[in-house]
Amino acid sequence: MNKPTRKMRTLRADAARNRTAILKAASRMFDEHGFDVPMSTIAEAAGVGRTTLLRNFPTRMDIATALFEQVLVDIRALVARQKGEPGDFEEILDLKLDFYIRHGGMAQAFHKASAYSKDFEDERNEVANLFLQAALPEMESGALRPDLTLEIFVIMQKAMSGALLGGESAAQRRETARILKVLMLDGVRNR
Q1: Tens-place pLDDT, residues 127-137
Q2: What is the sign of the dihedral through the CA atoms of 150, 128, 65 and 184?
Q3: Given 3.90.1150.10, 1.10.357.10, 1.10.287.130, 3.40.50.1110, which CATH number is that of 60-191?
Q4: pTM of the full structure
Q5: Do 173 and 104 form a contact (C-beta atoms < 8 A)?
């Protein structure tokens, strides 16, 4: 087998940089202009040609799925560090809410993507399972309701993205997230 040439390795590095630039630009453009921002605007913001953008991400849904995968990486890393202690569930909830506060346009992207993508539904179920696993120690101790299910955590995620769709600014989204968190925690606590 031939050894890759320096030029081939450089192209791979360039492709990785282009992909990263596209995702950063898309996140920013979704935040500033909403999910329906033209693909050409994303390409321009990323400093790549439209062909490069479309080769990496043929649709906005592909971009939204890739961005959600980045959120999953952060959540998985947090869960890997957790030790099954009280507060683990709230820590994951804070991470997810903070993402929506910082990236309001992504709530719109995820909301639309979830209506069209089976993969996105699988990822949402994975996050719901991570929420459930983090909540188990507090469910067993009696701090959280013992009847919490995977479906409840799926619904909670939908509520998060739905509630944070309308935030025009990070300050508005922060206040909405604060209220939503209080309501969610009140709903899952054992009485």
Answers
A1: 999 999 999 99
A2: positive
A3: 1.10.357.10
A4: 0.77
A5: yes
